[in-house]
């Protein structure tokens, strides 16, 4: 692929819409500040400026497409681009970790994909792909991937898959029923539940208020009910939109195995394909939120090193967005058999319980008591909040624990969701313990470990363990002296 290659012409249109998106707020400001909407005649000056901006953005998109070229040469992916000044970016093949493909509404009619080039170091520390090929033919993307693999491995390799990935080993997929359960039990459900609480609390509030303010009873009740109904309706609409967006995002979710790569495909409107080399996986995180845990469902996220994807959320890729907890071990065993997720955890001692409860609830107790005093008698309802956090502290104590099994460390804790981190010793970047004066008196310690994840790191901590247990974790983490 040493010859120069260009992007598909649809790239000019995509660049145009990207430019419009970036210039949309200045355009709105120009139109509204200079418009004459009440006078009945348009402001030709503001419309003229808007037209010039649109034409400029369109021409910019066209010239960016014309000047963009890429090729593989001398062990590098060489990209040349630039609107006014010619820029060159040479990416050594050895640094390329993976190519991620995605298909938007502009790509599908022409069988095109957007290719994001992921490297170990990212793009100068910025959380974005090292390079992007906005739109190329799917066949060219597969050829590019095969050539890069060939260069990295030093031997010839034929593309081993069809366009739809039929020759890869399918190890996991989600049905529509799973998508619906995932969408309904996501964090958006909490928003709606809180909205329901606001709705009924406002109704209950309106009754005693009417007894106090007899002169404005009817008006007050009507006003409160209207506001509560409006808030509830907005939350309900937002929840419905969140469900639809979740289904669109995770539709056709599948996980494939391709030699040493894990390949995740998903999306309805925009199809995305993410390739994660197994050697980039730093650990696992299992999440069970307060709604899914009683139902027996969980999600599993890969904590991946390097790369330079756009957000931290994408850096930690969901391998199983929703799976029955009883099936998790078997499903994971097909992909990463080295990880054991059903280890028996050692919990903090009984004397740690009050520390977990105080840590979660002390601030809410102070605020709620203050509210109860200042807004007596209705302020008493605020005590519901610290009671909730007290229960949450108790649940945190019950859920926390750790396990050491040969070269694997498992740590589980709870903020709101129950989170279980599973990591190998050689993937841990650092480990430390902490002990306050009060903990020292109680013979307690906390341990925290860090795994590499994107530009930062993923932390896992276990609070208020027996001091000897924390010391055993640090002893386990020390380099093996026999190997030295």
TrEMBL record:
TM region(s), chain numbering: 12-33, 45-66, 179-200, 220-248, 356-376, 382-405
Domain YdbS-like PH, first and last residues per copy: 65-146, 250-318, 397-475
Annotated keywords: Membrane, Transmembrane, Transmembrane helix
Keyword Cytoplasm in record: no
The keyword ATP-binding is assigned to this record: no
One Pfam family it belongs to: bPH_2
Highest taxon listed in the record's lineage: Bacteria
InterPro entries named in the record: UCP026631, YdbS-like_PH
Name of the molecule in the record: PH domain-containing protein
Organism field: Halobacillus salinarum
Organism lineage: Bacteria, Bacillati, Bacillota, Bacilli, Bacillales
